[in-house]
Amino acid sequence: MPGLRTALAALLALAALGCGYRVLGAPEGLGPDIEIGMLENRSSSPGVERMLTDALHEEFVRRGQLTPRYADGSAALVLHGVVREVSIRHSAVSTVGLALEDQLELVVDVSIRRRADGNVVWHREGWKQLERYTSSADLQVQHTNRDQALRRLSAELASRLHDELVTSF
């Protein structure tokens, strides 16, 4: 029986290799790491740049294909981003005119360049992400809901950025 188990394990390993499974690393042409410095905030919402920068770091760490670095000058790639706008508008209103749901819109510009030659390898301008959240007459609840929506929005944008970057190469 031990010989049968060994043969079965070897057969499964060969089948997995034949199906195209492989260990993913950094896509060719990108390099092993990326510097993600603090994004610039040109919006009227303080702190959104920190939230988005943290989401980018977390996403790159979670995915493991490119190692995120803070601004230490050692990474092969450098990400620069600008938060241009954070806007909120009512997206659902009750019959008596009370806001039931708000929509948060985040607009950012992102570029990634190679440190060695300064060439831009990926650029996205005016990137919009939308997130809806429950409105409230209680200001504390309203701020909490907005902050949670902004965190979800930041995580979604970081995930999309990572996906677009690694599939471009």
- Count up the helices: 3
Assess the beta-strand content as a share of residues. 25-35%
Helix fraction by DSSP (H/I, runs of at least 4):
25-40%
End-to-end Cα distance, whole Å, is 46 Å
Number of strands: 6
Report the uncertain regions. 20-27
- What is the SS-derived class? alpha/beta
The run of helices and strands is: HEEHEEEEH
Q: What value does the Rg take, in angstroms?
A: 22 Å
Mean pLDDT: 85
Largest sheet: 6 strands, mixed
Task: Output the keywords.
169 residues, single chain, six-stranded mixed beta sheet, alpha/beta
Summarize the structure.
By secondary structure, the protein is α/β, with parallel strands linked by helices.
Folded structure, characterized:
The protein is an alpha/beta fold and 169 residues long. It has three helices and six strands. Strands 1, 2, 3, 4, 5 and 6 form a six-stranded mixed sheet that branches. A hairpin with a 5-residue loop joins strand 5 and strand 6 (120-134). The longest helix is centred in the last third of the chain and has 29 residues, at 139-167. The chain is globular. The N and C termini lie far apart (46 Å). The relative contact order is 0.17.
Layout of SSEs?
Layout: H1 2-18, E1 33-36, E2 40-41, H2 48-63, E3 67-69, E4 77-93, E5 99-114, E6 120-134, H3 139-167
Parallel strand pairs: 1-3, 1-4, 2-4
Antiparallel strand pairs: 4-5, 5-6
Helix pairs in contact: 2-3
